[in-house]
Design brief:
Helix content is 48%, strand content 20%. It is an alpha+beta fold. The chain folds into three domains: 47-137, PAS domain (Beta-Lactamase, 2-Layer Sandwich), CATH 3.30.450.20; 142-210, Orthogonal Bundle (Helix Hairpins); 219-366, Histidine kinase-like ATPase, C-terminal domain (Heat Shock Protein 90, 2-Layer Sandwich). A five-stranded antiparallel sheet has the order 2-1-5-4-3. Strands 7-9-10-12-11 form a five-stranded mixed sheet, covered by helices on one side. The longest helix has 37 residues, at 3-39. It starts with a helix and ends in a 19-residue tail after the last helix. It catalyses: ATP + protein L-histidine = ADP + protein N-phospho-L-histidine.
Length: 405
């Protein structure tokens, strides 16, 4: 082999060896980078920015269950950096995500401040060692769902009694067809049960309407007219019960609201006060203007409400005195309607009661200025606008005006 051929062969061998060495070096660097990446607990770029923009509580934890980063809302659940996950449920969820096990959201209870909240937790691995856990507060959702279930169950139970009574009385009327006196008695009882069923159905529908997001027709409502109308509407009930209804307090107050809804709420309070007052007593309806709030108080001298029942009297179908409610035809929905009606108008209902001394329900609503005042202000603004030119100055003097008349 000649010298040039030997040189070319040596060069070829050098190139092959150099390329092999370079490939080995590159492969070793890549393996090292992968090992470093797998062992690293550093956050990938952008994770903190994502956490900062989240409205839900979210944390990133490492293999030991220690919080590496957290969103601002997570602080309410005591998730702070370098803290350990507070529950074993969350630790198990993180380990399952790190192992690549897909899991559905897990519902659990976590402390938020001094209260426990129901949360739905979901975890997903973002590296081989880091796991992102996102929490969603479902406490209100669970409460609403429980209310829906209770409402359906209670409604079914309440409707079962009058419907069953109507069926039995219908059979009794049929069996007593030859006895006109019995037929008339059963017919009267049948009418009472039908009225009770109609009242219950009407109140259920009213409460359902109040709990929807349907827009409310608002207008200026004179509190004096509202009270007078409801006192007149319940005059027959008061006369039958031997109860005197008295009106006192401030005059001339206005609220901005839905007149039928406010009338039903006040009517329910009056009906309850009369029904639970002894004969010969009186029911007072008082109005007080306090700053930007108008208070309408309905006070009775009745049996009162035990302290243990006062927190629950506004619940649907709750009756503090079951026997008396049955006798008076109470549905257990009147105060629930009052509460939702007042809340819908931006107000609140307060209760004071002592057994044997009576009860006072106070409705607090935002005070509205009288319509004449608003009309006067609008007229004054209109006059000010007409006295100004389009440029905001007084109009130029018209010399011809000096020669008129």
């Amino acid at each position: 082999m000649t010298t040039p051929q030997l040189a070319l062969f040596a060069l070829l061998i050098g190139v092959v060896l150099g390329g092999s060495v370079a490939l080995v070096v590159v492969a070793s660097y890549r393996a090292r980078d992968r090992a470093v990446g797998q062992a690293s607990t550093g956050l990938p770029d952008g994770v903190r920015d994502v956490l900062a923009g989240m409205d839900d509580p979210a944390v990133v934890v490492d293999a030991s269950g220690t919080v590496v980063a957290a969103s601002m809302p997570a602080a309410a659940y005591h998730f702070v950096e370098r803290a350990v996950l507070p529950t074993e449920e969350l630790a198990l969820l993180a380990r399952a995500a790190r192992a690549g096990t897909a899991s559905a959201p897990v519902t659990m209870r976590l402390d938020r401040g001094a209260e426990q909240r129901a949360v739905s937790a979901r975890a997903r691995a973002i590296t081989s060692r880091l796991v992102l856990i996102v929490l969603r507060d479902i406490t209100e959702q669970e409460r609403v769902e429980q209310m829906r279930r209770d409402f359906v169950a209670n409604t079914s139970h309440e409707l079962k009694t009058p419907v069953g009574a109507v069926g039995l009385l219908a059979e009794a009327v049929d069996s007593a067809a030859d006895d006109p006196g019995q037929v008339r008695e059963f017919a009267r009882r049948l009418e009472r049960e039908a009225d009770r069923l109609a009242s219950l159905t009407s109140r259920i529908m009213s409460l359902s309407r109040l709990q929807t997001e349907e827009p409310t027709t608002l207008r200026d409502v004179a509190v004096d007219d509202l009270i007078a109308a409801q006192i007149d509407a319940h005059a027959a009930q008061a006369d039958s019960a031997g109860v005197r209804v008295m009106r006192g307090g401030d005059r001339g107050a206005f609220v901005h609201g839905d007149l039928p809804v406010l009338g039903e709420a006040l009517g329910n309070l009056l009906a309850n006060a009369i029904a639970y007052s002894p004969s010969g007593s009186h029911v007072g309806v008082g109005v007080k203007i306090e700053g930007r709030v108008v208070e309408i108080a309905v006070a009775d001298q009745g049996i009162g409400i035990d302290e243990s029942d006062q927190e629950r009297v506004f619940e649907r179908f709750y009756r503090a005195d079951q026997a008396r409610s049955r006798r008076t035809g109470g549905t257990g929905l009147g105060l629930a309607i009052v509460k939702h009606a007042v809340q819908r108008h931006g107000g609140e209902v307060r209760l004071w009661s002592q057994p044997g001394r009576g009860s006072t329900f106070t409705v607090r609503l935002p005070l509205a200025p009288p319509p004449t005042h608003r009309a006067g202000r609008a007229a004054r603004r209109s006059r000010r606008r007409t006295r100004r030119s389009p440029h905001g100055r007084n109009p130029p003097h018209d010399p011809s005006a000096d020669r008129r008349g």
